[in-house]
């Protein structure tokens, strides 16, 4: 099955173009999600699809990254310090998600099926992901 970025629809690409245009018009300021929806005249669902597609397009074309902050909302960013701070927030968020998944789902599953090969493999791989994200978060703090 193709990746989401390879099967994006023409509609989501149009929404991405609309969002990109609106964000360029707002530069250097950012837009909250509500402002983005109003300015683009898209529905919230269309704006979400457009944002996802825009992130894929940005990666393909090496455009400046699109970030979201509580203070400024969505905006394009080229400041390395801001990008590092944004990356740290995302890494910590994913680390928390992985830890909760391990303790709330994988751990109890492993207790129910202690000799299960698949669950042991999953636990090992997720432990590796957890430790890698932890190292990244600690490295950024240094």
Description:
This protein is mostly helical. It is 71% helix and 6% strand. The chain contains five helices and two strands. The protein has a two-stranded antiparallel sheet with strand order 1-2. A hairpin with a 3-residue loop joins strand 1 and strand 2.
Quick structural summary:
This protein is mainly alpha-helical and 142 residues long.
Uncertain residue segments? none
Largest sheet: 2 strands, antiparallel
Indicate the radius of gyration in whole angstroms: 19 Å
Give the overall form: elongated
List keywords for this structure.
single chain, 142 residues, mainly alpha, two-stranded antiparallel sheet, 2 strands, 71% helix
Give the secondary structure arrangement, pairings included.
Elements (H helix, E strand, L loop, with lengths): L9 H17 L6 H8 L3 H18 L4 E4 L3 E4 L3 H33 L4 H25 L1
Helix pairs in contact: 1-3, 4-5
């Amino acid at each position: 099955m193709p990746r989401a970025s390879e099967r994006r629809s023409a509609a989501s690409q149009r929404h991405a173009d609309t969002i990109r245009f609106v964000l360029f018009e707002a530069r250097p300021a950012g837009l909250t999600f509500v402002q983005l929806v109003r300015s683009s005249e898209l529905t919230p669902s269309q704006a979400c699809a457009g944002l996802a597609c825009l992130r894929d397009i940005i990666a393909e074309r090496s455009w400046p990254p699109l970030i979201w902050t509580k203070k400024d909302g969505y905006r394009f960013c080229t400041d390395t310090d801001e990008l590092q701070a944004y990356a740290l927030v995302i890494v910590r968020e994913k680390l928390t998600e992985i830890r909760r998944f391990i303790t709330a789902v994988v751990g109890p599953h492993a207790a129910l099926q202690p000799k299960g090969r698949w669950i042991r493999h999953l636990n090992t791989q997720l432990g590796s992901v957890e430790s890698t994200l932890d190292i990244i978060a600690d490295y950024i703090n240094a």
